[in-house]
Amino acid sequence: MYREGRAENTVVTLAPGVTVGGDTVVVIGGPCSVESEEQILSAARIVKEAGGMALRGGAFKPRSSPYSFQGMGKKGLALLATAGRETGLPIVTEAMDAEGAEQVAEVAACIQIGARNMQNYSLLKTVGRMRTPVMLKRGMAATINDLLLSAEYILAEGNENVILCERGVRSFDPAARNMLDLTAIPIVHRLSHLPIIADPSHGTGLRDKVIPMARAAVAAGADGVLIEVHPEPDRALSDGAQSLYPDQFAQLVGELRAVAAAIGRNIPPAKTGTA
Amino acid sequence: MYREGRAENTVVTLAPGVTVGGDTVVVIGGPCSVESEEQILSAARIVKEAGGMALRGGAFKPRSSPYSFQGMGKKGLALLATAGRETGLPIVTEAMDAEGAEQVAEVAACIQIGARNMQNYSLLKTVGRMRTPVMLKRGMAATINDLLLSAEYILAEGNENVILCERGVRSFDPAARNMLDLTAIPIVHRLSHLPIIADPSHGTGLRDKVIPMARAAVAAGADGVLIEVHPEPDRALSDGAQSLYPDQFAQLVGELRAVAAAIGRNIPPAKTGTA
Amino acid sequence: MYREGRAENTVVTLAPGVTVGGDTVVVIGGPCSVESEEQILSAARIVKEAGGMALRGGAFKPRSSPYSFQGMGKKGLALLATAGRETGLPIVTEAMDAEGAEQVAEVAACIQIGARNMQNYSLLKTVGRMRTPVMLKRGMAATINDLLLSAEYILAEGNENVILCERGVRSFDPAARNMLDLTAIPIVHRLSHLPIIADPSHGTGLRDKVIPMARAAVAAGADGVLIEVHPEPDRALSDGAQSLYPDQFAQLVGELRAVAAAIGRNIPPAKTGTA
Amino acid sequence: MYREGRAENTVVTLAPGVTVGGDTVVVIGGPCSVESEEQILSAARIVKEAGGMALRGGAFKPRSSPYSFQGMGKKGLALLATAGRETGLPIVTEAMDAEGAEQVAEVAACIQIGARNMQNYSLLKTVGRMRTPVMLKRGMAATINDLLLSAEYILAEGNENVILCERGVRSFDPAARNMLDLTAIPIVHRLSHLPIIADPSHGTGLRDKVIPMARAAVAAGADGVLIEVHPEPDRALSDGAQSLYPDQFAQLVGELRAVAAAIGRNIPPAKTGTA
User: Fold this and answer.
1) For chain C, which ranges sit under pLDDT 70?
2) Can you tell me the ipTM of this complex?
3) Inter-chain touch C186–D259, beta carbons under 8 Å
4) Is residue C262 less than 8 Å (CB to CB) from chain A?
5) What pTM, to 2 d.p., does this model score?
């Protein structure tokens, strides 16, 4: 993943016209978890109408406690597929093991590897042998070098479509859920040809910090942002406290568009109509 | 320093027309250390011409090793005063003890309390009894709450002119000198009425990361940025590796102006002529 | 894993007379990686003769870089089995995925889940459905509560034979490879009925710190220690810098025996003869 | 402070027969704060009777909030002097600034520099020009190298009687108040000729973790331990939750004596009678 011998940046295509790593800053939105057909369809429409370019939503959820909601599994994937078809948005969703990766690849444009699995090398090799793009999230105490080395596990198996994601690291300060390390963005851009996006939702864990930190991520040069938005955050089964309300998400995209323009990048206007 | 019972923001005036905490985003530039009359005058002119609004430069330097350059002391303060008079820029410089604070207050518009002294309560009380504005830098492992409580030591003595400064905290990742915690900016704005600026020079320790992270700080809502710039960074006695070259500083101010405008704030154009 | 409703401690049996969680402090020794038949047999004899009670050694190695030595795999497991048969020492070795766990269970008395996989929940569930004891290492930025919740993934599937392992966490100080958090030992003993051992080899990464920190772990109440020892540390394929020389390992067991006795626990004398 | 050119260890004398850095492991006990004559006299007797060799107690208290109890100041010093005279115990107490250091030196055998002032270089230079021994506590995010460099500020001014103190650093885990980094002990012993003690009271913040972690500190090679004990912890004005009950302190000294003996060091039996 290092730049040596490779000057040009990797650009990962999620769907026709939706690329990560070029001039466009990609906004990926959606709920933490798929909870029901109504919920994910509603979320997808909110994302689409506000100008989001891809839909996120978890069907397999890695939760610290075995007694927390673990996601809808295969049924959740089917609902994501439905929401993708209806809105035309490509799907980004997490896989936690080899079997799940195969299932995810059937419906998703991008397989997410979560922070907890960043050094699950068996899983990295598995998705490295696939052709679906992979979004690799930084581990909670992973150095930037660790992140790049984990990406190399995927690249070394032949899958060059890797997007990195800064999502905050563990810190001593309980003021936020994690410490969003935005300096990782220019550091990765210097060291690697891979694109990097930021996840200010997990990176802060605080709804009212998501908009300013998403703006900051774009200003720092992020190739995209991953944002949690839920039709009804107060009823979310997971991560409700960091999910934006629908109108906040629309406001966010507008603010990001202005910041992107200020640094010579762009976020296209929302497309009207469905796929 | 908490918002309770105080809705309006504190606005700190450094000089006529130079305020921290209002709509304007203040750019404070200068070298890590005052090294000579020629160096500080040159630096001051670079800052002024590029649109910087205040001059930073250390006369008293807290260095981890007693054998590192410790600053020019009182002579350095005199040179700062000269540079301030010539350019009309207000001076921001650090004090390390009660005696130094008195000396600094004679020439500076703002007394800087460094990260290592953030919990030097005797010093905080001393500057709290003065009327000169104080810039309080976050300690290397201070929580945001610790920072606010330290500010309260100053406020409680009667000095309400306090500017907070995020300058990066210690982390496990050697990729950067510190981890710049930009989320501190919206968190402080929510909890406190005090303004907060960011120091991406110490926050990253890497020259080519200063511009993107300064942009990110402004996008996150910072009330100003503190930037190290040196006429000849390669010959600097301290912090050369994180000091901008003069042309980079001018580029920085331009980029920050665009980002500030994108979020409804402003950085005024550079004034021509001297004070 | 919490104590609620369960007063007595879990005692995990690795072999007849080798239990973790009772009065005896278990010393588990061996190389980082299995490298050859000669190497692992030699290491096993060193461990046995010094009074070690179980043999560790990696066949599947999770390495940050895909280009580092990845272990001998199944062949390494076969060599471990040979070394175990010859010395009578039960085997502790790591599994990185479901397939590997099945293979490990055929030869090992205890399946190690490494720090990088502490939140690989699919793997935790897999070993939870097995009956072989599991040693679960704390993740590099896992809180003690995270560690206990990960253990619960195993217990909830029915496998109650779980040993926890403190192996150091990431810190800001490069003076050691990790920061060994020995306070985790009494904290776990208060919160949970599970035994906990310490790994001062990974916890410090520094050979000459292993003996004092192993003593400290025992004094803090650890139910065992996991120690890297290699017949020829200077020729080790991985972790040579933290592996003890054979005579240091023998010295270590003697010192630990004295400390254990001082706090009312014991380490039995070395048994002469082979299995 | 580095070993280069200096093979023998520094041994600091607190009182006739009370040295830090030799074979004896020094137990220093007392309350967080001096609260009243009755309290400090009672605490001193508890320490003396249990076999403690020096009395700690704060008269000047650095507190994160200006509204917390700040200590009794000069009056507290006078009470410490009384307690010292009555029991014959040398006094260890903190100074926060130059003026306080002079006052402390009049009654104390050792001036403590707290973690928050570890890089208050003006204060370090001040106590460096004095002859009273200094105990320098590690800062909350100070590397071991930072600690040694801060010690050098004292040594460079001429005061060679410096004792280092590991008291825990900031970490991501809220399970304990700080993370006690006992590996600092053998690292300091390797790098420096200065003695180092441990403070498991601040290092854990949890009363029932103090005894096992004090044992661990001694097993790791600490030259002493600093322990908070209060006649009535539940009524303490500061740090009550980490202060031992009197009988726990007596138990602690006994356990430490056994561990010290196990590693070839010693803690002398309690002396009967007063000074």
Assistant:
1) 4-5, 272-275
2) 0.95
3) no
4) no
5) 0.96
